[in-house]
Amino acid sequence: MAGDIMKENVLIEKSIDFGARIVKLHRYLLKAKHESVLSKQILRSGTSIGANINEAQYGNSKADFLHIALKETAETEYWLHILEKSDYLDENMASSLLNDCLEIKRILISSINTAKDRSGNGD
Predict the structure, then answer these.
(1) Contacts for 112 with CB less than 8 Å, ≥ 6 apart
(2) Closest CA to 46 of 23, 13, 68, 63
(3) Which of 1, 44, 89, 112 lies in disulfide reach of 94, CB 3.0 to 4.6 Å?
(4) Alpha-carbon dihedral of residues 50, 95, 78, 15, nearest 10 degrees?
(5) In degrees, to the nearest 5, what angle opens at C-alpha 36 toward C-alphas 20 and 25?
(6) Which of 64, 52, 69 has its CA nearest to residue 104?
(7) What is the pLDDT of residues 36-82, one digit of tens each?
(8) Percent of the chain whose predicted confidence (pLDDT) is above 70
(9) Between the CA atoms of 75, 76, 77 and 82, what dihedral angle is there, to the nearest 10 degrees?
């Protein structure tokens, strides 16, 4: 139980830090690259991760919010790849953001699996 609380706290902190990086990325894309469409997409998906994780702490259906956060993580990963391949992000910047995104994704998957094990629901 204490390990789960610790994992949740780490997940919340990492998602807040990642969300802040995404906000800064959005600002960079707008000002330095004059790109508004992709920057809005990644801003929405990248900040939605933490919002859903936070909401899961208080909602009736924690697993649902964690699943939504996982989907938003996958979408953010996609946009980061697009931004790198279209030369809006250099390899180092993209790699750093992707590493953070994938770390959150791994923790989310672990949290979802733990919740499934506890509920006895293997689906």
Answers:
(1) 63, 66, 67, 70
(2) 23
(3) 89
(4) 0
(5) 25
(6) 69
(7) 999 999 999 999 999 999 998 886 778 889 999 999 999 999 999 99
(8) 89
(9) 90
